[in-house]
Amino acid sequence: MKRQDYISWDEYFMGIALLSAHRSKDPGTQVGACIVGPEKRILTVGYNGMPSGCSDDEFPWEREGEPLDTKYLYVCHAEMNAILNSGHSDLRGSTVYTTLFPCAECTKALIQKGVKEVCYLSDKYAGDSLFIAAKRMMDAAGVVYRSYELSGRDINLQV
Fold first, then answer.
1. Position 91 pLDDT exceeds 90
2. Which residues are catalytic?
């Protein structure tokens, strides 16, 4: 008889997004994303960080100050990194599992690439314009977004 306590697809893919977030060097917010095709195959993953060739030690990680002295003008978001690092040109019909609801800029890219569903863990910036705009665009483009349902299960990785 087969095991009955295996993890669900949502647990599996959100787990990959959470694990990817641990690659981020951002001291404040670590975000991970996992894009999955309609056949339940992982197409690509990403996390928030500096673009390739831009040293994590030379660019700022601060959240406040003059714009050029903060991380916001430099960091590539997890969803965008997943799209840009994908070996697949076709992401139509896919689902993105992300630890933080996508901003408007990432949403534009997700829509353009044909992502049809967003499963997110946190929506802590729901009241900010960038995230209201993201939801408006998703609604207009027919992209479904849903909150990840916590299972209450602890999944620990031992190395």
1. yes
2. 79
